[in-house]
Request: fold
Amino acid sequence: MSRLVSSLNPQQHQAVTLPRESALILAGAGSGKTRVLTTRIAYLVESGQVSPGGILAVTFTNKAAREMLTRLSAMLPINTRGMWVGTFHGLCNRLLRTHFRDADLPQLFQILDSGDQQSLIKRLAKAQGLDEEKYPPRQLQNFINNAKEAGLRANAVEAGDEFTRRMMQFYADYDAQCNREGVVDFAELMLRTFETLARNLNLLQHYQNRFRFILVDEFQDTNKLQYKWIKLLAGTNGCVFAVGDDDQSIYRFRGAEVGNMNEFVRDFGIREVIKLEQNYRSQGNILDAANAIIAQNKARLGKNLWTDEGKGEPLRIYAAANDNEEAAFIVDEVRQLHREGMALSDMALLYRSNAQSRVLEHSLFRAKIAYKVYGGLRFFERQEIKHAMAYLRLAANPDDDTAFSRVVNFPPRGIGARSIEQLQEASEQGMGSLMHVAKNGVVGGRSGSSIAQFIAIIEGLRKSAETLRLSELIEEILERSNLRQFYAAEKDGQDRLENLNELINAAALFADDYEHGLEPAGESQADVEQLEGTPEQQLLAAFLSHASLEAGEREAAAGQDALQLMTIHSAKGLEFSGVFISGLEEGLFPHDNSMLEDGGIEEERRLMYVAITRARKRLYLSYAGSRMLHGQPRYGIVSRFVEEIPPALCKWIVLPEKQFDTGRQSAFGGGWGNRNNNGGGWSSGGGRAPGPDKDRYPTPVKRESFEKARPDEHPFAIGQNVRHAKFGEGVVINFEGRGLDARIQVRFASDGTKWLALQYAKLTPA
DNA sequence: TGTACTTAAGTTTTT
DNA sequence: CTTAAGTACA
Reply:
């Protein structure tokens, strides 16, 4: 016992050893959050307060769940089998599989991923003759998911206007269709579980009694429904250990409600909020910068990170003339750090939006620096894998229309759009699923026989599914469907073939784990209802769930030492010795779109906070005076977030060969160091803010660029910094018209982008 | 049915 | 610029 808690700091210790009462742990970045969570579980089990079966620990990602399990098995001598540790959706899946009858689901219900969901919506919208212009599938999907994530069924959605009423109707039809097919989408997993428990008192009490301790990771990311779900399971006597960080709440756009933290304090009568503020990751200057930035936010619970490890190096800031130069700078610094012994894999290059990776990749590629981009397609999202899985889904559930539509004519077997339409029409007239009407011979002629062929393939697979091993079944799918032959004949099909073979491999591995009880779908005897069906069916269902719920890493091929490229969002939770935050320009980061939303800037600022706190030792911030965006140059000024960092923590990098002149500040680089001419001070500090050391780093002007950018007929240059009497400072980004009609477009630091009539606008060079 | 061209749009993402 | 999705045509 003492072994577990002896090396914890006082706050961690307090959190881990709390008596049985609900608590909120405000865990700052790098404060040992996962450690506290897992040690708490180990402590509870080891001190005999609960048996493993009484633990429910819930996370958002499979990765986090795996990490927790790995750490737990290292801490506890006993096996972790009886514990319920998983993602919200994984745990819901587990509950629904066990209680499929109470949930009104077929035993082998399928899970639709976002792509599947969208194709179902498209199919349905088309069948209803819904105007795609007025009701874009994407919007319908959002409407449905938002409603479900708020815990609302179609009949509960308030519809004030005709438009909403129509979407509500569609939502109802969509749900009906899902029920007919026996499929559930992600949000449905949560909502259905919630409803099943809420309406079945026996079941609810069983689980409320069972889960003596509920632990929630990344609590700030929970949506309304997830919070309701937690409350329901906790009941009146529950004990919820919620760990989160409001300052790292960056997922509002997908339904996360930071407000749940305050709700939680109120609903559960939390007496004390424990703050973990000691940081074990970053050096002092980095933490000071993070603290200073996040302090600008008003809506906070309040927290300040500290370390006893010393200040470390200053943050390095670089103002590039353009995106290419920014990339070149990063390449040089990465090289240098690598030479000094920092592993490439210990460095991250972060950006706000994926599109920014292109230029960076280009430079890295030319410089022959190994890099890895996160965020690509995942294994189970690949086209060829989805096709193979569709056959597998039909083997498990022939009424899965989404799977049917995907492969009825793939590989092409001469079933045209008209035939598929006929099937769909028949299906809508209440004649059952696509497979069902297909069997009834709705389509005649040559297509009819092709369809019969397809049915025969599926029927054969269904038979095989009863006897063959999973990997053998997939092997058979590849052969009988002609998928393998099809890709073998395609000119670029080689990779796809390899992936298909990998699928067989993955299935074999999965089956192995499953039989050894490593996969949670194999239920423990403690549960109310035993799983039914043959072992083969269970395994098949588990594998299909696995494919939907855990689509695989978004990581490129692993192994080699490589620089890590990713968006700031995907960097959350990770740490690196060296971190580059690129593209720190107004409009890009904070992103333009965020400025329209209420609280948008604060969310962007939290994103900046997350980015900064990824760094252990060295942190670079860079921005570019101009960058190509959508094929056009876009001129930017330095992000407000750079200005919010106390200048004393920063060192401005100016490359020797870039020192041209010490004249007035330019323009082109969006400020090259001194954005404000306040006597060398750099705006935010006031007083004796050091900013760039002028003796060593004269403020450069990049002449060539400056000259090129100045159209003769205008008094201002594109890229030039200007001052407006009312709007303050900004940068000229465009012109329109000539003479008295000429208008000038300026991106202001505080008021966004505006078009001004050149004749009237009182602009002065800044 | 498949290929070639046009057109529009372009934050962030897990399950 | 780049990509995805839709349209026109052989």
Observations:
- The mean pLDDT of chain A is 86.
- DSSP finds 28 helices and 21 strands in chain A.
- Residues 355, 358, 628-632 of chain A lie near DNA strand C (CB under 10 Å from a C1').
- The two ends of chain A are 65 Å apart (CA to CA).
